[in-house]
User: Which sequence fits this backbone?
């Protein structure tokens, strides 16, 4: 059956755009015809996916972006993470990682979401096999045995487009997910992440800090011009109080929670807030449909795993679809999509468990559990195999990974990529 497109991707945020770029004829032998439907232009100030948030890009994600030919431009606006320091406020546990001991130049990078968006959009606009429908909104979707149909409103005109496969990558509040009748399970942490940037008195030396406090984790990520991206987690009930604090009052609270390792803080940037929840869909794949990125699974930001997990999913799905196309297989067939999901389950479940356990463990005030978690942190810091394993997880190398992660890259101790 003839369709308008082979694949329709709903959502042009980072994960949906990454999938499109991985399938573009710039980056692969793919001749798949793709439509990307996005409600807000990437250049708009109100684009939530490409705002001024700082994203922690793991080394595996850097490899994906590099192998897609995007990293060269992104790197101009990226700051390396050469050290990671994790600590437990008022307690003795800590973990330290450094790139040199792992045999890599950086453990990861910090990039503004806006700069990432520019690179993705340049790739999409340069690809002959991708149509970007933006601004556009989806009003309905329908899946039949042979076709995925999408009703889309473009500049006030509604039309129906068809494809062999529909990918819903429209974020945590995905409307497409609901149209497909897919249920979710949600765990509300009753916390809010306040994101901003500050300048510390002392150089950050390319070190990413994560400090666990009784009210939630506090992260400082190294960025250019000696700025630090701040992710400040507070109880949801207290969020408005911190958002409304005058600048010096907020900086005083930051200093009290983080300590004086970097001296005083100044020049607080604009504060934005994001509610923290863990979300999982009941079905990530159906016949002719895939749920991807935050629409499929959203996690607590501790450990900076969410975006990186979504990017690995996108790389694995692209790999599976290109392989299917080369073999003249039906790219929307459930067995094929199920094999993609099977390849990603271990990685997804590890990240979901890891971030959730961190959230639960560090908010627990029982003395026995505090001592136990700090002993685990010390063991991780002092025992080389444990530290190596933790570092591999932090860099996004865990079990089987898509070829875009491993291509042209070898971690110390690996015999083949």
Assistant:
């Amino acid at each position: 059956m003839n369709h308008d497109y082979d694949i329709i991707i709903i959502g042009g945020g980072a994960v949906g755009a990454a999938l499109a770029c991985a399938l573009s004829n710039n980056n692969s032998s793919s001749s798949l015809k793709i439509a990307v439907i996005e409600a807000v232009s990437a250049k708009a100030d109100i684009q939530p996916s490409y705002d001024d948030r700082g994203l922690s890009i793991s080394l595996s994600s850097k490899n994906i972006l590099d192998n897609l030919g995007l990293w060269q431009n992104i790197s101009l606006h990226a700051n390396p993470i050469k050290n990671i320091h994790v600590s437990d406020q008022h307690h003795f546990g800590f973990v330290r990682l450094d790139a040199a001991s792992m045999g890599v130049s950086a453990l990861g990078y910090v990039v503004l979401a806006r700069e990432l968006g520019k690179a993705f959009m340049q790739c999409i606009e340069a690809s002959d096999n991708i149509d970007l429908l933006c601004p556009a909104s989806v009003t309905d979707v329908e899946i039949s045995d042979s076709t995925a149909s999408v009703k889309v409103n473009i500049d006030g005109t509604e039309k129906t487009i068809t494809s062999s496969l529909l990918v819903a990558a429209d974020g945590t509040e995905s409307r497409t997910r609901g149209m497909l009748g897919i249920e979710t399970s949600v765990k509300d942490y009753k916390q809010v992440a306040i994101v901003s940037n500050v300048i510390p008195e002392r150089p950050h030396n390319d070190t990413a800090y994560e400090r666990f406090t009784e009210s939630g984790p506090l992260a400082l990520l190294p960025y250019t011009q000696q700025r630090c991206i701040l992710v400040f987690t507070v109880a949801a009930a207290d969020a408005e109080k911190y958002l409304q604090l005058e600048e010096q009052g907020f900086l005083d609270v930051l200093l009290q929670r983080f300590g004086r390792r970097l001296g005083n803080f100044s020049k607080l940037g604009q504060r934005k807030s994001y509610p923290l929840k863990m979300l999982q869909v009941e079905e990530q794949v159906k016949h002719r449909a895939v749920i991807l990125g935050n629409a499929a699974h959203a996690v607590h930001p501790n450990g900076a795993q969410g975006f990186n997990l979504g990017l690995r999913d996108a790389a694995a799905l692209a790999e599976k679809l290109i392989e299917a196309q080369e073999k003249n297989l039906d790219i929307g067939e459930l067995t094929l999509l199920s094999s993609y999901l099977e390849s990603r389950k271990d990685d997804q479940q590890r990240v979901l468990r890891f971030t959730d356990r961190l959230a639960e463990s560090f908010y627990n005030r029982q003395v026995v559990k505090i001592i136990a978690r700090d002993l685990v942190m010390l063991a991780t810091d002092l025992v080389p195999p444990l530290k190596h394993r933790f570092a591999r997880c932090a860099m996004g190398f865990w079990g089987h990974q898509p070829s875009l992660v491993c291509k042209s890259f070898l971690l110390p101790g690996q015999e083949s990529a």
Residues 408-417 have pLDDT under 50 and may be disordered.
